[in-house]
């Protein structure tokens, strides 16, 4: 790598790291926040949900900002806003103030992840791009590993407020490196923000996301769920119709005419639905049925993060050299085999026999999948559209995860027991295998000797 490429990669990792760290650390701090600021379970839920709703609903708009105003500008704004919101959360005088600031954090987080990936896509190409995405995946996976550990230490020995102060360190480092990079974005002349599309897209994503998160509290028959869900779906339909006619659309629908982008996002639906569904049910089952303490239940999945850290760079490099199709086919199938191992779990669970082998097999499958999947999707479109491409894929993965998690009650069909757990495991394995089958059917290895051209207009 050249010096500018190394700086870009480190900046992208640091920017994404804080967003992922905040997602993984928050659950550990919730009881301490509630004890300090007051509020019950609903307050704790909104501390989490305020971040998820703003992050998910504004992802497409943030990706559009990245392409119109430039990745570095949007990344810098996102870093400063995320850091300021983090400090204000650390100083929160009330639970209500904290929830509002968590929403602001979600807005800033929406600016960070698409812009950081778009920066990588616009800086690296072909085999180098696969390696860079693999390294990005490995280091951002470390955030999920470090989050609960750091959160536990701060809560136990300092204060929950330090969980948010720690965000400032990687943010300051990223801002300093941006200055050292010394690059400026070139904004295209005559391109403007699609404000109608921005509103329709935000409502279209935000309404269903809110409904999926809160349906457990209100039930699907409640107007508080039906109205936002219905308005959101109608807004998504209106969004698609508007984007077909807009002069400067926020989401150029022509990118779905690019084979690897379209099929890669379909594969993303299956793979990330499985990740959310399977990860949730294993941790809950180990605690509620098998009797594991909460900490040990969380640590049970530790090899998944370790596998990503150790192997994502390798498979990203191999996919960059040989093409992503083989890896995107085999990876999810291997992951599905790993989940089928969990069918050996019953009321009595031996971690070393019933859990660890399946976790290790799944970790290998996931490591084979993630970096090639991201590289195949974003490497197939022009770098000028990397921001909205990354935002689209992030939005697809998050909504797929929310939908699958919301369906757990239907699959379990009542109280969680061994039989219900096994049904969820089979569904999770099937989703992963479908992700591999879709990749085999739809993904094609690119000809790296040819430049990426603009997608067809729709």
Protein architecture, described:
This protein is mainly alpha-helical. The protein contains 18 helices and no strands. It has three domains: 185 residues, Up-down Bundle (Growth Hormone, Chain: A); 56 residues; 192 residues, MFS general substrate transporter like domains (Growth Hormone, Chain: A, Up-down Bundle). The longest helix has 35 residues. The chain is globular, with a radius of gyration of 21 Å. 52% of the residues are buried. The C terminus is likely disordered.
Features:
Growth Hormone, Chain: A; mainly alpha; single chain; 458 residues; 3 domains
The CATH homologous superfamily of the largest domain is called MFS general substrate transporter like domains
Mean pLDDT comes to 82
End-to-end Cα distance, whole Å, is 37 Å
Q: What is the CATH third-level topology name of the largest domain?
A: Growth Hormone, Chain: A
- What portion of the residues fall into strands of 2 or more residues? under 5%
**Main sheet characteristics:** none
Q: Percentage of helical residues?
A: over 70%
- Class by SSE composition: mainly alpha
Tell me the Rg in angstroms.
21 Å
In CATH terms, what is the architecture of the largest domain?
Up-down Bundle
Using the alpha-carbon principal axes, give the shape: globular
Our count of helices gives 18
CATH class of the largest domain: Mainly Alpha
Low-pLDDT windows of residues: 450-458
Give the total of beta strands.
0
